[in-house]
Model the fold of this input.
Amino acid sequence: MILILGGTTEGRIAAQTLEEAGKPFYYSTKGDEQEVLLHNGIRLQGALDDIDLEACCRRHDIRLLVDAAHPFAEQLHQTVARVAKNTDIPAIRYERIYPQCGEDKNITWCNDYADAIRQIKGNEIFTLLALTGVQSIARLKPIWHGDDASCCCHFRILDRESSHRLARAEGFSEQHLCYYHAGEDERLLMQQLHPEAILIKESGVSGGFIQKVEAARELGIRIFAIRRPETPEDFLCVDGPHGLRRMIEKLLPDFYPLHSGLTTGTCAAAAAVAAAWDLFNIDLKLRPEEFPVVLPDGETIYVAAQPRQRPPHSDFTANGDWMMEANATVIKDAGDDPDITNGMAITANVAVPFRMDNQEIDQDDYELIICGGEGVGIITMPGLGLPLGESAINATPRRMIENNVKSCLRQLGIRPKVGQPVVITISVAGGEEIARRTFNPRLGIEGGISIIGTSGIVKPFSSEAFVNSIRKSMEVARATGSPRVVISSGAKSERYIKAYYPDVPAQAFVHYGNFIGETIKLAAELSLPRLTLGVMIGKAVKLAEGYLDTHSKKVTMNKEFIQDIARRAGCPEETLTAINGMNLARELWNIIPPACLERFCKLLIELCHRHCAPLLPDGELTILLITENGEIHS
Done:
């Protein structure tokens, strides 16, 4: 069993991540005030010291601890660390994502509350707004209470009885309490109170740290920030749901019925980071087995790179600068998804011109060129979103490679020379041969595979176990009591539909992958009254023809069928000709004339509805067609 120590946003996300397995787990909070939807999870409540937590682990046969508590819950972190060590139970720390603002001159950093008190007094702050929570009222008492009180303090707290009780117990004035309202602009309270300074905690992105800093900076208010406590060194740290799932898959391989994998884009980024690291680190004993890669959603995962095969090479360029280069390789792991690229060696060559003068430049003020080498395809036909003749490395992987390599060089203190770009070349051994067994030749991608991936992670879509995981997600969605459940293919389409349905709870959004028909049948079995199907055009043109499983290995785009819909929508002959020459369905958004687009979308949705509605005989089915830019047709 797994025990999550929650009570935070991260705890709620951790619970959702474990729910995907369809197996029981425990979720523990100190109080009962956090609302968290559990279908397979079992709720525990009450404060835990070392004895209590160890007894809980033995009683419930806990094999893994997930500490997703608040970053400033230092006592609990130490308790988890000690119990994990005493019981030999591994402990994962679900950490928050923290903005890189340690050098921000607008922030006065404090090591702890005592240091904050000293600095606030030393700077003679007379009016302070503390955004540090109700627990900090007692810890900051020296600056607001007694003869030594140095300033007028306002505390913003949650408007609930337990918080009011704590404030009263400390004798704090009710008139100086302010209340947190979710989604409220941080500037409003600051404009109302006009404090000289605010005090905040380094609470990360999910704690609103960025918004508080930006609001205070805009209004000219001084910022004091308390640094977060250090994480116990024995913790295994993750900072997002993908990293959490992959860590659980590693530590408890049997917990999830299917294992996730990595996209070729993530592998290429990891290989590039490893090559950049190898360039400037001679001692192989220091070389990590895994390298950090920041995914598009901001979380960091760690990816294994093969041991260095040969040392970095260096030489002088024609103009006398010293050029260094190194290679590194990552083996593609697709998890349990039947991916033809699984096991392929993805190699990155990083060539960096080393600065030979003392000119001071911004560390990121240089060009970074990403290109494909052997085994990476070349774009030869329009419609793929990349220029003709360009390497088939999609936009998201390009950004991942660039951002991660620049971050690596920045951490290593390397400053490439302006005018001589860093060149990263991605190659894939055997890529040209493998590509012949894909749709790449038909799409006009010649000579190799594509480097792709929008999330950086491959979730296994193609098996009975994934359909079972959809069932679990649908059961959780029903348990929310939401009047509507929304199904979509993945993260991109879900993001757009969430904006369309802002009041639908997060747990009521379910991914169907390619199994549209199976998911609608599950909705019928669960007697869901209202179901919204969000679909992007690539799947919609297959669904409209009656294919309820849209996987590219089972069905391909039928251009004649699409031409017939376009003809019925009143499109001219030149449009029908353009459809015949397209490679991807998403080109339709540019091909269909604006005057015919509404009619075309309506016909497409009607055809999709005709095939899907019978699967939900007692429910109301809504179908939304989503463009690449997030526009929605209904």
Remarks:
- DSSP finds 21 helices and 30 strands in the chain.
- Residues 356-361 have pLDDT under 50 and may be disordered.
- The longest strand covers residues 322-331.
- The longest helix spans residues 594-612.
